[in-house]
Design brief:
The protein is 0% helix and 68% strand. By secondary structure, it is mainly β. The strands form two sheets. Strands 2, 3, 4 and 6 form a four-stranded antiparallel sheet that branches.
């Protein structure tokens, strides 16, 4: 959660990093949402946070990955930043470990 003080707006700079293992699918994706809505760049599930390298990686194929996102014009008040994930088919898995989420607010 982050609170933007009354009387102004802010631009949020969000960074997410994690050790990940993606397997059993084409690729695994993550996105960052502010109050349930994806923030820029908005790409839906068209962002490969980790891939299976053509099906050759397993649940033991750990790697480190990161993304940065920006939300401009965020109004005063309390807001929730979440990281959401998806795999490209139901048989796939994405394991995240040792993750970090940083949210910086620059008042406008």
């Amino acid at each position: 959660s982050i609170t933007i003080p009354a009387g102004g707006a802010a631009t949020l700079f969000v960074s997410f990093s994690a050790e990940s293992a993606c397997s059993g699918t084409g690729f695994c994706t993550v996105r960052v949402a502010l109050d349930g809505n994806e923030i820029a760049p908005v790409v839906g599930n068209d962002f490969a946070f980790d891939s299976t390298d053509g099906g050759t990686e397993t649940t033991s194929s750990w790697e480190s990955h990161a993304i940065q996102r920006v939300a401009a014009g965020v109004a005063a008040g309390a807001h929730t930043v979440t990281v959401q994930y998806a795999v490209t088919n139901a048989a796939g898995t994405l394991r995240l470990d040792d993750w970090g989420l940083t949210v910086l607010a620059l008042r406008q």
